[in-house]
Amino acid sequence: MVLLTGGGTGGHLFPALAVAEELRRRGHRVFYLGAQGGLEARLLPKTPIPHALIPAGKLDRSAFRPAEGYKLLKGLLAARKVLKEVAPRAILSTGGYAGFPGAFVGAMGGIPLLLHEQNAKLGLALRLLFPMARGLALSVPIPLAPGLAAKARVLGYPVREVRYPKEEAKARLGFDPKKPLLLVLGGSQGSLELNETLPPLLKPLGLNVLHQVGERWRERFGHLEDEAYKVAGFLDAPLAMSAADLLLSRAGAGTLAEAAFHHLPALLFPLAPSLDGGAQLANAMAYAKAGAAELARREALKEQIERILENPGPYREAMARLSPEGAAGRIADWLEEHL
Prior knowledge:
The protein has helices at about 10-25, 40-45, 65-85, 100-110, 125-130, 145-150, 165-170, 190-200, 220, 235-245, 255-260, 275, 280-290, 300-310, 315-320, 325-335; strands at about 1-5, 30-35, 50-55, 90-95, 115, 135-140, 150-155, 180-185, 210, 230, 245-250, 265-270, 295. By secondary structure, it is α/β, with parallel strands linked by helices. The chain has 2 domains: about 1-160 and about 325-335, Rossmann fold; about 165-320, Glycogen Phosphorylase B (Rossmann fold). A 7-stranded parallel sheet has the order 3-2-1-4-5-6-7, with helices on both faces. The chain has a 6-stranded parallel sheet with strand order 10-9-8-11-12-13, with helices on both faces. Strand 5 (about 115), helix 5 and strand 6 (about 135-140) form a beta-alpha-beta unit. The radius of gyration is 20 Å and the shape is globular. It is a peripheral membrane protein.
């Protein structure tokens, strides 16, 4: 039995689900421990994966909040009860506040703990858990202190490994297969900032654009839609990325991993570090350093788009080198070493 834990947001949940499915395919029993109120509370009941949801107080980077501390304590007690019933032989935590209680209780009880970091910067929960962990799986290479590096392996970020022929994907989405297509993503929930600022910059270019605005913003930004500029609340990522020639997006780890799998060049608009502790900026810098993406500059966006579309080869090759293909299998292999 392997216990997987992590969540709150899709960035922590989806990699763990991918590993869970790989382990189930290999014949292992799995159990998922998530947080009440997290994205997993909506998605896990739709899967065949046995699971439990517990309180999970958010670990604040800047201040202690008594209410969250109380939830964390309740979560630790609830996790202890779940682990006693499930009796896992190994634990994988993908981080986030949801991934802390079960991992902490399990490691304190001597159960082998492995961690998976999606971003190019270690999150707070994983930094706290690291001293107790047997290993740390990274999505992309990042500089680490010697003590951390000794336990770390670059195994990638598990994604849905589905690709479609580009012209077929464009046609299925209602676009001319012969024309370049820009894909705009602001994360699974959409980005109000990108929804407001990018259309006035992109529409005058005369290019085909597919813009995922987020389900909550679909009605508000539906007026943007015309023959060349299509608006969607939510998109099937493999289909959209197979169709696209250039991605304009936030710099979430999951989005970038999917772009790398599809060898899709990107212009990135990372969140301000004050909003996420600098994780997205670190991701964007890592992909830019690798030659796979550029940090977008609104004042020069037209020139950046034209330059990449004219010569996408080097960006596609760099993205291919960062591709996470096979990541779920590699993480499952590592977990099997501890079973």
